[in-house]
């Protein structure tokens, strides 16, 4: 398409150099100024030549040096909306909008070690340790079953994997509990907790863990942190508590949640079943070889991530009466398997090792009440698929240890 510029010289019109390229320009139209408008009847709105094929002489003459000031006169169809619609454009509104866009600040996001996202603290945000209205110090909430937000479609476990788990559970039920005596006063009950009960335990701990007195990372005053998340039920315990057990948690003054009644019933049943096994296999009536029935008033819940571990130690902060009676510690294992060490001394080289799997119950009391024990490593991705799908639990191991103060 050819375009022509005209200018006035005296009383005649002179053709200027033809322009060979048509340039499409976006023009901000002003409805109020029609004095300097350019009337182009020779071209229609779409830029096509009119039917006459000629442009008429209705051209506003101006200086060549002021071409940038030219503004077309809008046709009836191109007129701006009236002021009542609120859509009239002007330079100031465009400038304000651009300023608003520049002032928008993105919220920074970072990833935890396990891949979950969290908002990075910004200037002016309330600190997690600022405290609440009661003066208690806040701490980061640790959710063992975080809601997973992902655009990736999650596939169900293969059918053969699910069937294998069901077969193993059926075999376990048919042959009875697989109970192993590890030593005097120390019994391991393999696969004792059913899949349904495991799911129930995880969901209950999740609800307690995100509430007041829930999970946190314990540590020492020097700054050293334990490689796990912990929550206490019944009474509070931490590595530097004086006395060892307290009614309130020291750093945030929160009260530990109560032990759920369902947990109490499971502990009593485990002790009862283990005693029946011991009596049936030893033929002894020596009560020292069986465990006293207990109603726990303390439960320490630990969650180990893939890198979690716990050094060899003794559970000896309970009362002298509890320790002298040899009242047992009952441990539930849920999720990933753990390499568990135990021995008469604190030496790792002299310790025995056993793998604690999801659903296992370990009981130690009597002569083994003060045995040294610890977790050296977590076996990655070893948790039952059905458990993980039903609970959305993080990869790791959930461990509950019950005892009497």
Task: Describe this entry's structure for a reader.
This protein is of the alpha+beta class. It has 2 domains: 6-103, no CATH class; 159-403, Alpha-ketoglutarate-dependent dioxygenase AlkB-like (Jelly Rolls), CATH 2.60.120.590. The protein has 6 helices and 19 strands. It has helices at 91-103, 159-175, 195-209, 261-282, 320-324, 385-391; strands at 6-9, 12-15, 37-38, 71-72, 109-111, 117-119, 178-183, 186-190, 229-233, 236-237, 245-246, 298-304, 310-313, 329-335, 338-343, 352-356, 361-364, 372-378, 397-403. The chain has a 7-stranded antiparallel beta sheet with strand order 7-8-17-14-19-12-9, covered by helices on one side. A 4-stranded antiparallel beta sheet has the order 13-18-15-16, with no helix packed on it. Strands 1-2 form a two-stranded antiparallel ribbon. The chain starts with 5 loop residues before the first strand and ends with a strand.
Ordered list of secondary-structure elements with their pairings:
Elements: E1 6-9, E2 12-15, E3 37-38, E4 71-72, H1 91-103, E5 109-111, E6 117-119, H2 159-175, E7 178-183, E8 186-190, H3 195-209, E9 229-233, E10 236-237, E11 245-246, H4 261-282, E12 298-304, E13 310-313, H5 320-324, E14 329-335, E15 338-343, E16 352-356, E17 361-364, E18 372-378, H6 385-391, E19 397-403
Parallel strand pairs: 3-4
Antiparallel strand pairs: 1-2, 5-6, 7-8, 8-17, 9-12, 10-11, 12-19, 13-18, 14-17, 14-19, 15-16, 15-18
Mean pLDDT: 74
Regions with little confidence, pLDDT below 50 for 5+ residues: 1-72, 74-91, 104-136
Order of helices and strands: EEEEHEEHEEHEEEHEEHEEEEEHE
Rounded to an integer in angstroms, the radius of gyration calculated over CA atoms is: 39 Å
